[in-house]
Amino acid sequence: MKVRPNVLNINFLLCAFSLIKLERSTFNTTIVLCFIALVSQGVTAETKIDLDNTSPFKYPVAAQYQELADLGDISATLGDYDISAMLTYDGEFIYINNLSAIPPGSYLTTIRVEDEDGKISILFNHRLAFYRERWQTSSELTATGGVTLNSKQNNEFIERVNRLSESALRLQAKQLGKNIHITTRIDIQHRSDSNTLSGEKLEIPDFYIGIEKPTDLGKLGLALGNQAIGSNGLVFNGFQRRGVSARLNDEQGRYSFKAFATSTDSSVSSKSDSIFSNHKDSRSSGVTVDFLPYEATGTRISLLGGYLDSRSQLTGTGIEINSDLLDVESDSLSYGGKTWFVATNAHWFEESLSLQLEQAQSRIDSDGFDFGEPAQEDKASRYRVALNSNGKFKQWLKLLDPTFWELSFQQQEVGADFYSMANIGLASNLQSRQSSIQLSWTEIQILLSSLEIKNNIDKIERLPLQTSRQNQMQINFSPDISLENSLWGTIGRPRFSVQLNETNRNQNLSDASLFGMDIDDTTIDSKFSASFQRKKLSWSLQHSRNKYVNDAISETLDGLLLAAPRSNTNNYFTSLTLSYNPSENWSFAPTFQKSKFKELETMNWQTSVNLGFQASMSFLTDTLVVYLNHNSSKQNNLFAEELLMQSYQNRQSSMSLNWLARKAESHNPGLKVSFNSVWSESKATLQETVDNHQLTLNFEVYWAAGVEQ
User: How much is the pTM?
Assistant: First the structure.
């Protein structure tokens, strides 16, 4: 029975609308209605194949193609998989064999034939759904307990915990059936001392229930729990929250629609906010749309859009509500508003020319609803254009003859009052421009880039005008050498890297009083590294220099010094690391680091030397493993103006002895026992030596299972 698109669209849109307008009192009813709307649709028209049935899929060949010479003229794809090797042909039917090797799911399946003239004809182009009417489950359980045998802590701020237990449980289950797909997962963590993110002993950092139903229009789905909204850009960027969503997407990427209602702030609580925030003023809702209106060989144009309506009571993200001044209860205050965007992503000329455009706008009340200033509107935009050698422009740099090259330019502007609750790390009132060129050959890669950032693009009088410019060059060289050469066979296969970076910052001299100090400085970073790789031995050498030149002037008021410019400085850093693995059961890794920092005006300087050593040894076929770690550092400081020398010395050693008392087999749990020792000592000029140590004994019970039933 074929799905009626009008009924499907109505059910889906009702479900999406309910999610956006969701209130806590109607949550359970909405979820039930959405679930019924999903599972009550008619059976999709695509062919369904039970992977537990070993019979091959059989397709009759039309009469005009039945004189095919052999399988060399026939090819087939299953989604992104090439399954030509799975075909057989008997002159009348084409068979797809070894179906049990195909992962469950819905795939667009295409069978093609090529004639003597090279013309390709499509014999079969339909969607096939492969399923197993069985649950695929996996689970992991770990429980650890530790007891402190002996401890000396010379720090009154360290909480002394003599006994500590931790446990973690992860459950996952999946069913890709004939008419519905279900995916579930849940993570549970417990810690006896409540030293957790939420302050609770029991946390649920992740849980998810997803239901998908293949239809003629694509995959129709409902999800509960932790999920990523996607559509990363100006409005959404890494927005992963706990909530509920409904989506409809075409598996060929022609369109995708998602409606969601989530918590605005992240949560791992097990006592509250199970699905999303219990408080209506700490929720976000919205939609994202991705549409591919045009696609041809080498050309693709997609349109994107999104809308977000968010409220939050969490301050400390650049927004602060002073409830004392407003004389109201703090839990009655909330801020937020609406943000939306439209964007396009286009590729032409065999995808060698790409253009990305995005325009966003927000209306945010940042000082609390119904208080202070009204909501402020502002906008943000960004675009990027890039050329590369993947398509028709490959010969543009024929003189240099690189294997790959790319040129790019991008610009981003964010208004002073633009704000998105799903991208709180986006800096406002800034304009950035970046250009880069990348060149690659077989042995050499070169990257050149420049970045310019300007603030106060809205020209607010009370803010200074500042500009930062950064130019960077990076060269990587991996020569194609033979280890049979006596030199390279001794020191190893080399790889070299050089990085140069120059950053200039400045502001209008007249704005020094606004900012509290003048800014006019240059930082030059240079870094050289070389690494060498052998079968059992690898080592690397790195040297870097940081030079800081400050041309700023002192800021004074009525003859009083308000701000003195920072001194010019030089900083050198050198490190040498080595890793030696004489066998699979032994490894050693010593390190050496040295740095020197000097202030050129004051002649103050600081030197430090650090020596480290790590080793691991396993015995009895990895049943007994020993880890050793030692680190020793010494730092000398000279304050030239006071002729005062200070030195600090720190040493720390640790040892961990791990015994696999019982392996986890089948459904039987395993047991690991570990003994850990940590010791540290600190010395400083004119101070007493301080030492700390701790001995602990830990037990871990673990269990894992993955079965189909």
Answer: 0.76
